[in-house]
Amino acid sequence: MEKELLLMLPGPVPIPERVRLAMARQAINHRSPEFGAVYADCVRVMKTAFGTANDLFIISGSGTAGMEAAVANIGRDKEIACIVNGKFGERLYKISQRYGKAHEVKSEWGTPVNLEALKAQLEAGAQVVTLVHNETSAGIKNPAEEIGKLCRKHDALFIMDGITSIAGDVVESDKWGVDIAITGSQKCFAAPAGLAMVSVSNRAWERLCKNPPYYLDLAAYRKSAGNKPMETPYTPAVPLFLAMREACLMIEEEGLPARIARHQKMSNAVQSAAKAWGLHLFPKIDKLHAFSSTVTAIEYPVGVKDDEMRGAIKKMGIVIAGGQDHLKGKIFRIGSMGAVSAPEILATLAAVQHALKKCGYTPKGDGVEAAAGVLG
Amino acid sequence: MEKELLLMLPGPVPIPERVRLAMARQAINHRSPEFGAVYADCVRVMKTAFGTANDLFIISGSGTAGMEAAVANIGRDKEIACIVNGKFGERLYKISQRYGKAHEVKSEWGTPVNLEALKAQLEAGAQVVTLVHNETSAGIKNPAEEIGKLCRKHDALFIMDGITSIAGDVVESDKWGVDIAITGSQKCFAAPAGLAMVSVSNRAWERLCKNPPYYLDLAAYRKSAGNKPMETPYTPAVPLFLAMREACLMIEEEGLPARIARHQKMSNAVQSAAKAWGLHLFPKIDKLHAFSSTVTAIEYPVGVKDDEMRGAIKKMGIVIAGGQDHLKGKIFRIGSMGAVSAPEILATLAAVQHALKKCGYTPKGDGVEAAAGVLG
């Protein structure tokens, strides 16, 4: 068998061997003290990564299930202001349309959040606000703290999708006034895809809506988590919990601040390479916004074709992401999430640099050397 | 580390090594031809086990997510007749209450379905019927074919939970007129928990309801499954798909008829042991109903305490199930699902026999010998 491709995507990300091997063991009973201890280990570490003392649950499902759990449990029949400056903001808007009166607070993908439009929605009575903290479709980090303050000022509930920031970037859910924060397993946690995590504030519990989907009913998760041993309401994806526990223990061992600094350093290296090549980062940021430190979105130079370039990179055993929807062909994206370290970044940048040349673009300078300077 | 406990539960069941090791490999991109081929392999084998030529999808979530997908996509605002003669029938009733006008067609747990009450509901205009084919909480197999005929006669849609029958017992979804059949990964497929499968008939597609939960929107699954490569709408639990593919290949290798015969033989052995001990099987069956061939529910003899007996069995490294809800302390249940074969059954029955004696009951005869006679 050929070696596995190196996935440098904004998720799923390569999974450390320790984490993968945790799944190879025999099934354990999900209504046993042993499983309860696995669940509790995960929650302990996750609370640190979320920056929260709130309740926190693990749902067997993808990040999208977590997004829907948030909206369905506190957004039904409510006025929901949905901040959209990328694909996942759009997804929260689509989900919100199924439950409440959703209002799109829109700006172009990869451009700053329209805070004036958000204020207008809040003044007009928005009861819930949704935000994607780190918008991977565009490589932009949105000002969650600022938006949290506005929500508090207008007494609105604040849902924050932290799927690609939590455990890889600084997140302070409680300090920022986040009522429901969401993340997924296959991003900065570097665990396998298939688990969604949600934290729930007291304010959110007080305003819980009736009749959420049965599978995503947060009150049922709270009830089962209170059992001894700690449980999930329905059969959980046991191997994914075993893997996630191992991933969480690795986060504890590395230390969260060191992990966040590593993510920052890896993305700095990618940004330096782009700059050396003479390419532009895609997001248009201001002082409230920042370039993502978990994925870097870079504009294609004129004439370089997406399929050709990513095809050439894949021939070298590496997979990077293109643009989604209307950004297809316009940008490429390099993930720096999870367990990613210098060797993967250097190999990826070397492959990108070669592919750029092959596809007809002459880099202004040596991006690989620039990145090595950051990493070394 | 101690050896893992032998789980003789009605799910989760022991997972063959081949299936577990399939999860240990590195993550693969879920939007790649390789993943598409994994998904397609699973669907091919599953269609055989479901007895269907209909569309079939895999949802990353537990069996309950599959149950909700069925009800939410064809039951919203409809008159739903929910057949309840055990815990999982009750769950479908609870889910149905969140979406439509649910009517309980009730009989005592473990007793035959009340067909007269069902006919009355259908005559009164029920548009959807829900049934649990094999009710593990009580060890009874319900007459799906008969109920399918009634649904067709009254032009009602038929949802069948086959979570603990599909891939372990004869299921003919198309022949029986099932519109949505559901199963889970951790039962007769002997794969890890965390995937739900649903098949959808043309009749169901024609009567699809608006506004299902976003994560469980079957139209989105259909659209993504039609992509090349075949995809899921949201990030799937990749390792569980890899494991499921391996489990499906094992089903093809064994052959479905041989697999079904093995389940029947294993449960026959357990039933013979119960009879030899002088104990009663819990279900009260008639000619339309049958004892489950994937789990055997046995009444405790007077004086034998559930905790004591199952505790004594656990000391021998084996876990069997007690009763759920009001049956707690009244019955014990032995699973014979998935990869279970003679050694596990013999060990379990030997442990039960010993525990019965230890807990103050004198078996009438040698149940282990009786079972060996069936298995040998």
What's a concise summary of this model?
The first copy, chain A, has 376 residues and is an alpha/beta fold. Helix content of chain A is 42%, strand content 16%. Chain A folds into two domains: 6-11 and 255-375, Aspartate Aminotransferase, domain 1 (Alpha-Beta Complex), CATH 3.90.1150.10; 17-253, Aspartate Aminotransferase, domain 2 (3-Layer(aba) Sandwich).
Q: Which stretches of chain A are low in confidence, meaning pLDDT under 50 for 5 or more residues running?
A: none
Radius of gyration of chain A: 21 Å
Number of helices of chain A: 14
Shape of chain A: globular
| Percentage of residues in DSSP E strands of chain A | 15-25%
Overall helicity of chain A: 40-55%
End-to-end gap of chain A: 34 Å
The two chains with the largest interface, and their residue counts, are: A-B, 50 and 50 residues
Helix/strand order of chain A: EHHEHEHEHEEEHEHEEHHHHEEHEEEHH
Chain-averaged pLDDT of chain A? 97
